[in-house]
Design brief:
It is a single chain. The chain is α+β, with helices and mostly antiparallel strands. The protein has one domain (about 35-140). It is about 35% helix and about 25% strand. The protein has five helices and seven strands. The protein has a four-stranded mixed sheet with strand order 3-4-6-7, with helices on one face. A three-stranded antiparallel sheet has the order 2-1-5. The longest helix has 15 residues, at about 60-75.
Length: about 140
């Protein structure tokens, strides 16, 4: 249990408009997620005022991301070493995200347009004290 393939399956279900969103979050919590390093820290990107930790379900998904970086950055990215850390999704959500000190979520398989998924910093995904919607009545639901 906790393999990336099960998370990929749940993502596909949600993108097709079926499946339980809570089951998707549960699968992320169980999954092992590969997070590449960037300049000594975890690879992140900022979009919409949110810092996104870029995670991947397996080495093939990370390799697709590396190929995209080569297309964007050129030769410098082609020669770079793609070291990564492996986290249980629960640790990413419960420890890494809160330690970032800014609103943060997890972006899974960002180089796979039909298989990517964002897990934003909201109630039910990250700890309530770090959720951007924690002060909204009903947790923003």
């Amino acid at each position: 249990m906790g393999d990336g393939a099960a998370l990929v399956d749940r993502i596909a279900e949600r993108r097709a408009g079926v499946g339980d969103p809570r089951a998707l979050v549960g699968e992320l919590r169980r999954a092992l997620v590969l997070v590449p390093y960037d300049r000594g820290g975890l690879w992140t990107a900022e979009l919409g005022g949110i810092r996104w930790v870029c995670g991947f379900t397996d080495e093939a998904a990370l390799a697709r991301f590396a190929e995209e970086r080569v297309a964007v950055e050129g030769a410098g990215a082609a020669s770079r070493s793609w070291e990564y850390a492996v986290f249980r999704g629960a640790r990413l959500l419960d420890e890494v995200i809160p330690a970032m000190g800014v609103p943060a979520g997890v972006a899974v398989n960002v180089a796979d347009p039909d298989g990517s998924m964002l897990f934003p910093p909201v109630v039910g995904i990250v700890p309530d004290s770090y959720a951007v919607d924690a002060d909204v009545p009903s947790g923003g639901r």
